[in-house]
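Notes, p. 3: input format for complexes.
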Amino acid sequence: MQTSSPDTIVAIATAPGRGGVGVVRLSGPQALSIASLVVGEQSLSPRVAHFRRFRDQAGEVLDEGLVITFPAPHSFTGEDVVELQGHGGPVILDMLVAACIAAGARQARAGEFSQRAFLNDKMDLTQAEAIADLIDAGTSASARAALHSLQGVFSDEVNQLVEALIGLRIYVEAAIDFPEEEIDFLSDGKVASDLTAVRRQCLRVLDEANQGRLVREGMTLVIAGKPNAGKSSLMNALAGFDAAIVTDIAGTTRDVLRESIQLDGMPLNLIDTAGLRDSADVVEQEGIRRAYAEMRKADRLLVMVDSRDSEGDINDIHSLLPQSQQQLENLELPVTVVLNKADLSGLPAGQREDGAFVISAASGDGLEALRRHLKDAAGYQGEGQSRFSARRRHITALEQALAALDSGERQLHGHAAGELLAEDLRAAQKALEEITGTFTADDLLGRIFSSFCIGK
Ligand SMILES: Nc1nc2c(ncn2[C@@H]2O[C@H](COP(=O)(O)OP(=O)(O)OP(=O)(O)O)[C@@H](O)[C@H]2O)c(=O)[nH]1
Ligand SMILES: [Mg+2]
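Output follows (456 residues plus magnesium ion):
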């Protein structure tokens, strides 16, 4: 791990646009000397706010405000850091950044401050990701979960798993080192019960991480079906306002429409699409092409059918969606079938035996059952069930660890194969350490931090 970076970076840390205050942040070995040039003063006391004038290279005053220095290692990045707090105008702040660059700093890349904090062991990778998640949080539940991750709740869980695995590995590898006693070691029951305990713990963390991911990302639901089925009406009913145009003309919706709502704190990203049919109209054709493109990216598909023509087998979605066979080939997308216009067909609203939901988008009948179903289908257990925020890559890593533990159990019980069990335990540990970043490839780090905003 590196302890200092060769260059000094600068960026506006506050949101773009105008505000009462705007903060420019410097980090790196020259941060203090650059700040001295800007405020024209050599020794500023650490962590004390000084009211000063900010000047450019030519000595012209750009702004006045507070300068605060945070000498290494007691700073966000672990390097020398300086904050210049001026007035929050984009032009003033740009001029201040330019003055810092003229004095030797370099414009920071997206996420570079957080990346340096990570590289200097100020925080682990899940905590760095939690900062971005906290800033991006769209609901109070996701903000709370991200804050807990930032405070290390998720990292602690993962570190405890790693500790337990290390303990188990030491035991198993000791057994391998004494081949004449290996079988006794492995069959004395301790390895088996420890392995079961670690596996159970890993499952629990995976379950919690899934809740954390749901609170952050929610579920993307594409509403598809033939024209006039009532797709846009459902979107409007769920959103609670007229997001989409509704008419009795088949082919009303042509563009892809998006609305994000919340179900009990779970974000639900609704996507309304053009009605599917064979059409000669090029605009409609493009709309249908886009509808299928959205389905391929969705977490779940809601197939909407007019309940007055619902004779088809609802388990065969291809019979309900024109052209879907070739478009959705090899796609394993969970599906909810909704039969709409219950008020016209007279079907009772609610979930049927065959799993389909009968609703009336017009009257709202059956919508509550549908909302409940969507939460359940996502596996969402409700607000307050997510102690920390998590991302898809964390879930993948936990699943890999779990798969390695499962394989380890098979080696132990099936073949009493110590070497292979040890290998699986090593693989599980490696997967877990990717979560906190103890063990992470550089290109993954690059991808994670580049998705942050500049100045973070
Ligand atoms: N009676 C009744 N009419 C409905 C219901 N849902 C939708 N409609 C009517 O059905 C017609 C079509 O509704 P839309 O929501 O535009 O249907 P769509 O599936 O989005 O249609 P396209 O955008 O053309 O694909 C409109 O006249 C709606 O008012 C319902 O539950 N009951
Ligand atoms: Mg529509």
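The CA atoms of residues 36 and 165 lie 50 Å apart.
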